[in-house]
Amino acid sequence: MIRDNLCYKLNAETDSFELMEDLSGRRLKHSRLRDNEIYCFDYGPEVYVWIGKNADKSARRNAMVAGRQIFDAKQRPSWGVFERVAGGLEHSLFREKFKDWPDVNAKNVLAVKNPCAPKKDKISYAQMEPCDVHEMRRPLPEKPPGLVLEMTDVGRGSGLPTDLSQDIFGHDVETTGVEMWRITDNSYEEYPKEKYGEFFSGESFIIRWAYRVMQGGRKQDHETGRDRAAFFFWQGSDCSIKEKGKSAFLTVRVDSERAPQIPLTQAHEPPAFLQIFQGGMVTYSGKVSFCYSSTRVCSKTAP
């Protein structure tokens, strides 16, 4: 409930958070955040410590300790979230808590006033011209299938991307590992490896794809010195809105590597995702429930 939301502000002198009565129990506006302040937002199962870009460095070190005291002061579910959020790097789960968070894509749009535009008190008429029907029917040029992850086009997820196949500097991609989880009522659980590639229209799944990029015949390690990874959260066509939101929320919990997170809907998977299962991906109708056997899954198909 929104009325249970609590907002705290860090007191730099006492290194503790103080409750802000005027900011609690409501959905906040983005404009209430100050870049030189540190806030703690308690949303029940989720607690975020937001650190402004210009916040004092010494206060930053103590903010997480004080925030953890707030998180531990209440009984919270086992899947509860306690997270540090840096100003300017907020993820979607945090931004959606505010009712007027600006569109990050709109910030890069420059509005230019047309000096030749007619005044508002005058009526302007647009000159209409007939369309070229043959031009409309002309097929669009085919673009090679691709998927950009961490500023790298991984193409179909294997070998060289189609548009770079003749380029010695093209990125050669290979899979190094796959993990898969199924979304349950309030958490997630590992999916049997022998069932990888079997999806159900009434379920949601999280897939971790580990891959390696080679360039010009040489392995190009990730800038942090580790192999790359991406998390896909796949949503069946029969999933409810609540289940789809749960898959996005739990993907954040699974992804401890801060890797790219890509939402996928049934029948709209990119080639890079399909190649993970080497042509063995199949989608069944209905839901699946695990038997108490480690080697077998019981399917429940829709009538």
Concise structural overview:
By secondary structure, the chain is α+β, with helices and mostly antiparallel strands. It has helices spanning 57-72, 92-95, 133-137, 241-254, 271-274; strands at residues 6-11, 16-19, 38-42, 46-51, 81-86, 148-149, 152-153, 171-183, 188-190, 198-200, 204-215, 218-219, 228-235, 261-265, 282-284, 287-290, 297-300.
Topology:
Elements: E1 6-11, E2 16-19, E3 38-42, E4 46-51, H1 57-72, E5 81-86, H2 92-95, H3 133-137, E6 148-149, E7 152-153, E8 171-183, E9 188-190, E10 198-200, E11 204-215, E12 218-219, E13 228-235, H4 241-254, E14 261-265, H5 271-274, E15 282-284, E16 287-290, E17 297-300
Protein described:
This protein is of the alpha+beta class and about 300 residues long. It is about 15% helix and about 30% strand. The chain has 5 helices and 17 strands. The strands form 5 sheets. Strands 8, 9, 11, 12, 13 and 14 form a 6-stranded mixed beta sheet that branches. A 5-stranded mixed beta sheet has the order 2-1-3-4-5, covered by helices on one side. It has a two-stranded antiparallel sheet with strand order 6-7.
